[in-house]
Design a protein that fits this description.
The complex is a heterodimer of chains A (113) and B (114). Chain A has 113 residues and is mainly beta. Helix content of chain A is 0%, strand content 53%. Chain A contains no helices and eleven strands. In chain A, strands 2, 4, 5, 6, 9, 10 and 11 form a seven-stranded mixed β-sheet that branches. Chain B is mainly beta and 114 residues long. In chain B, the strands form two sheets. In chain B, strands 2, 4, 5, 9, 10 and 11 form a six-stranded mixed β-sheet that branches. The termini of chain B are far apart. The chains are: A mainly beta (113), B mainly beta (114). At the A-B interface, strand 5, strand 6 and strand 10 of A face strand 4, strand 5, strand 9 and strand 10 of B.
């Protein structure tokens, strides 16, 4: 069974731009969560989608948004990029809930210049 | 606010010894706790989950304990090997602020020397 895939793997953007990251969960998994990982803050929860609905969210500004499609694939969008948005963005999938084993993708490394 | 503390300094041990990693938390009553392993440039990999009503869980050379009174979890790797070198993350889960959340610690880097 294929694992969680994320595209692109690396991205360089400039301040003020917007970016869209994509995540394809493991087949059959309906819960997709997004995390931001930085050396200073560690792994921080952004939001979780289940059946095309945002079910949980962390403490990030509205510039961070996401959506989930009917095939459970998910996208995350960050608008008006700031230097502090430079991070590794990780997507994780599970059958139905964050309470279960989270299967992480390799991440997208975003650098904002 | 909820706070999770893991040893910020790297843990260096000799091959064959038991590695013990600590995860302490405050201002939270998690329903469960998970441990993950993360290698450089990769996403975390799930290792073990323990629920609030469980004291101990084992999986091969791994053992995790969960003390809700001390608000602490200990993660043990017995007969450690250089291949166990990685960063280990603990994550606390439960219902908080109207949401079902999973909160990660910053991780502890383990280095096993031959």
């Amino acid at each position: 069974k294929a694992g969680v895939t994320q595209t692109p793997r690396y991205l360089i953007k400039t301040r003020g731009q917007q970016v869209t990251l994509s995540c394809s969960p493991i087949s059959g998994h309906r819960s997709v969560s997004w995390y931001q990982q930085t050396p200073g803050q560690g792994l921080q929860f952004l939001f979780e989608y289940f059946s095309e609905t945002q079910r949980n969210k962390g403490n990030f500004p509205g510039r961070f948004s996401g959506r989930q499609f009917s095939n459970s694939r998910s996208e995350m969008n960050v608008s008006t990029l700031e230097l502090g948005d430079s991070a590794l963005y990780l997507c994780a999938s599970s059958w139905a809930s964050v309470q279960e084993t989270q299967y992480f993708g390799p991440g997208t490394r975003l650098l904002v210049l | 606010s909820q706070k999770i503390e893991q040893n910020s300094e790297a843990l260096n041990i000799q091959e064959g010894k038991t590695a013990t990693l600590t995860c302490n938390y405050t201002n939270y009553s998690p329903a469960y706790l998970q441990w993950y392993r993360q290698d450089p440039g990769r996403g975390p990999v799930f290792l073990l989950l323990i629920r609030e009503n469980e004291k101990e869980k084992r999986k091969e050379r791994l053992k995790v304990t969960f003390d809700t009174t001390l608000k602490q979890s200990l993660f043990h790797i017995t007969a450690s090997q250089p291949a166990d070198s990685a960063t280990y993350l603990c994550a606390l889960g439960g219902f908080s602020g109207g949401y079902n959340k999973l909160i990660f610690g910053a991780g502890t880097r383990l280095a096993v020397h031959p």
